[in-house]
Batch of 2 targets.
Target 1
Amino acid sequence: MNRAPASMWRNPVHFLAFGLGSGAAPWAPGTVGTAAAVIPYLLWIQFLSPVWFLVLLAVTFVIGVWLCERTSEDLGVHDHSGIVWDEFVGYWLTMFLAPQGWEWALVGFVLFRFFDVLKPWPVKWADRRVAGGFGIMVDDVLAGVYAWIGMQVLMRLW
């Protein structure tokens, strides 16, 4: 069971790293965090031009490395299960160039969770070998790349 620290509600860095609080879910915080990432995607991210979408991905990745590193150090736990900012960025990467709409958002959710849980090479390698905030972020970004490829294939088949 996930035990979110009390600082998650008081410290803005922890609050963001915990996916605006979604990482405090007692069970399956990664799945809940990914579901929380769907909301901003549907409300505004899906409407960004490809250039601005890439800017968003780059900025949220860089900020995420810092957020996750800082929160991990503060908690004394590398990649605490409640740190889900990496799921946000991985899911948003999955949705880059995807068609708009809740149906595709759901397809992206399933694809991202599938690859995040399955952890095909090099996702599992990065998860185990790369340290710090970059390590916390990079395995979910790699899972997002797999999910993005799956999304692009499905789009062409539909």
Note: Residues 7-157 form one domain.
Target 2
Amino acid sequence: MLNKDKFDKTAFGVEIDPLANASSSIVGTFTFPQPTILNSFSVDSLIKTALSGLGFPVWNSSKPGNEKADQSEEPATYFTFNYSTIGVGYADDEPTGELYLIQVHLYAPLSTNLTRLIRKTKAAVHGAGFTWPEMTDDTDEVRRHKIFEFQFVDGVDFDGDLYM
């Protein structure tokens, strides 16, 4: 036999009386918390945060105002970065995510040994949640230039609804 005392409240705080009027319906107001968008960051800030711990300036090469006036003002060793994006995970003709194709450029004087800094750069980028970077050497007769290429996938936001 059912005992009414066992059914006074639920986890939602709704009164339940299974023995009243042989009614099986439960009437109540349920409120749920608003969803939280976890990745409310920008890819720019992720890259800058990852590289800033290495102790050299970091610039987004596509942002206006970051150009250096002339070579004499340019620091000896520094990073720049750029990226492009591609929609991925299509459903109903809409992408559910964006794939970022990222390049980080490390510039340094020709006399600089970059072996340790290259390792630290790869570890910092990967530790920030990006794929393990591939590196290409584009050093010329003026300065050392290492290009790190890696990827990142982020959700797509349609009218406040984050997918992925």
Note: The chain has one domain: 43-163.
